[in-house]
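Example (one chain per record):
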Amino acid sequence: MKCPNIREEELKNKIAQDFFWLYDCTRIIGNVDFCVSMLQSNREQYEQESLLWAEAKKDSSDVYKSLVQLILTIGKARTFDKYLPPAFLGAFDSEKIAFIPYSEIHYVFYLNDFNWNVTPSNYDTKEFKLIYGKVKDVIDNKMLLFNYIKDDIDLKRFIKTNFTVSKSGVTKTKIDKNNFMIIYNKWLEAVKPTIGVNWEAAKKINIIDGDFYLADLLSIDNETIKAKLSVLLKKNIYKYNRQTDDLSEIFREAFFNDNQKAHIQFWNRYERPPKEDYWDYIMNRRDLLVPQDIRERKGTFFTPQIWVELSQKYLADVLGEDWQDEYYVWDCCAGTGNLLAGLTNKYNIWASTLDKQDVDVMKDRIENGANLLESHVFQFDFLNDAFTKLPQGLQDIINDEKKRKKLVIYINPPYAEATSTATRVGTKENKSGVAVGNKTHAKYFDKLGKARNELFAQFLARIYFEIESCKIGEFSTQKALIAPNFKDFRKFFLAKLKKCFIVPADTFDNVKGKFPIGFKIWDTVEKKHFQTTNVDIYLKNGAYHGKKTFSDGLDCQYINDWVKKYRDKNSMITAKLCYVGNDFQNNIKVQICSSTKEVIAHDVVFNITQNNLIPACIYFAVRKVIKATWLNDRDQFLYPNNDWKKDIEFQNDCLAYTLFNNNIQSKYGVNHWIPFTEYAVGAKERFASRFMTDFIEGKTLLEPIVSESNIPYLLFAERDDFEGGGSESADYKKPMKRVFSETAKNVFKAGRELWKYYHAQKFPSLGGVDAEGGRGGYNVNASLYDIREYFQGRNEKGTMNNKSDDEKYNELIENLRSALKSLAEKIEPKVYEYGFLK
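Predicted structure:
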């Protein structure tokens, strides 16, 4: 709720309706603006009458001054002598509301020799300033302030728990393992900006804002009670609890830049510390408080307990029931150590992590019962530090060939890479320095090839070369098994994949993508090229879901290699095919458009001409007809066999699917892709191009289209200079009447009704802009995209709306989508039959 530009009486009505609907807000108490009481049926049972007396201001106001004005109003009329005082005094305006317990302020009404006979709304009187000075510290420390929009839920919870009769004291929101992250996000907005810290400098020495939040959260009377935290709150300053030289030049203490005002007001609403039962959990989940860029780089992603337990079961299956007594375990990127939970032999377990804070958390957990040895938990930068820095006991294992064969490197390593989905779709730049700048990256630069951009690949490379003959149990994406960028990695990483399972990536905290994460057990003693494997599939709830095959693709060619053969540099360009990568995760960038101006980001632009229209449509349809899921996200589209050339129905199905599923926009050039004649859809003028209908009918153009060099293009003519046209059948590019399947005909039928409905609209002009509703004028050459834009419009952010306010259009576009779905289902089996997918 936000109520700008309304009268004060209307504001009071809205506050009563939106937040105090369970109470009586109609009573008039002296000159107080707003009163909240129990409803009559309840009120008769109790002596206490009011729950809140408040000052109201219709515009944004200073709540301190409003509260002082309320105090003067009450004191002047001695309202507290005529009515029982409320539990709270308050002040509100169009944006916010503040509360302060009456018991904290009542002393001021009994001041000796004070002149109450002044105008309360006059902020310039000496009496107003005197009261302001006396109550400011109380307001600073006891006020509870809520914003209607940002704090809506907290405000309603506060009212529900505190606005009851015969209640003493303020009930604050309790913090537990379910809401500590929600409160952290509120803390970031309210408190963090008031702490005098150079956050970028702090980040460089591994101090994060979450450390300050933990110092606040685990405190009593603003004194942190957990001595091993990296940052401690000491009343009104923060102290850094680390003895290291890297702090000396930046800071050792941090002060509040607002005299702790925001900090006090924020924590007035929450009960600190949480129940002791939650302390270990909250500290163990420090990973959730790590900023995204650091989390990606350092691998602070909490492994869900369900997958921890499953991975340890798989290790037992491979290594034997007594593996924990027979093998040593080292988690070299342990974070706060949750991957090691459930292991029983602490004398064989080692845990290292990049951050000293995480080491401190693990040691604190040891004091509270975690099954680890403090001497086996240490700080270590695996991608940079020499093994001579390891504890001597672990060095002895690594340096002994026999013991090394009994060492299991058990990890969930960092997953950061130089590119992400955001960079693929053009919304962000490549992340510089994320996976570079460490010694392992430099040392194995050539061997890793393009996999060098992945931190988890660097971990595996160092383990493989420098801890020879060990066992590896690791969580990572399936790129190491199948991605083309990992071909060089697979050439040197010769190890036997003993067992593997995959799970949805979004079951891991703060991972949003829909792709599989696998747990793989490798035996580096057995030097074998990975070729193919069947892995177990588990759903989010831990249910077994069958098996999936992954193959390395070392001898494979991919779909992008195939389509490149059909490049045509010399014929008329009718549209452009834009694509990125060979797998499902990159399908979002496969599109057909009129011009590269419509493309945000792409790797390859393929010109579509009359000579390669069918291969281009096959490429597009093959990549679009199967929905991307977490399970197929990394599957690679392959170079097909030649059987597709003989299947004219398949070719025509792909053409039909593509004609009604593209991003061509007529404003970027002549629309050659209108799949109907003017007569078929009732167009009001002649189309600029009839290329597509002529192509479908197997005709040549009566009027040749002229190129930029003023040389006529000869449509459908055989060309000796057409790349890839020599050795393969030319059926797909010879003029021929296209005969469509019944399923494809249904798509054309649904599409025709949509085009007819568009051309039947009453347009204000031929071109131009319709002032009513913002729709454009008539565009005789409208594409499917143009028609959608006309009816659906765009929101304030410029994004096309999902639906139209025209119900007839909604019905027609839904019919088209339904027909396309049926056509996609018909094409799908052919994708596998012709080898585009395994």
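Caption: The mean pLDDT is 86.
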